[in-house]
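We give this protein:

***
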Amino acid sequence: MNPNSETIIRSVETDQELQQMLDVRWFVLRKPLGKEKGTEQDEYEQESFQAIAINHNRIIGCARLRTVSAILGEIGFVAVLPEFQHQGIGRELMLKLIEQARTVNLQEIRLKSRYYCFEFYQKLGFIQSGEPFDFLGILHIPMLLKL
């Protein structure tokens, strides 16, 4: 069974979905680093576009687009549950965010990629835009996509 064929990509619609999305985000991105619940969110949650991947009524992935300025957006918190990784779901989440960025007339999208995800973002058209740096104890690479 291909989970991608049964997966819906859309924006968060309810408070319950928002909480489930934050749970996935924490489980994938912060728990492995020994971080407490609450570290998976910041002050930009309500103003951001939150994309989720839903498979059989279960949120299995998420990603966020935040408008930084009239022309610049920032993608962050891209997460897919381990059992659903490497099946195209992260790519579909990213394509949804890129589509949303174009809809609101952004000209560029930036992100900070964990070093082991660099090629994933390159395949989507992102290019390295600065020197690697440490964030949360993990080497990150700044990247940019011109729309």
Summary: The CA atoms of residues 136 and 146 lie 27 Å apart. The chain has one domain: 3-110. The helical segments are 15-30, 89-103, 118-123. The two ends are 35 Å apart (CA to CA).
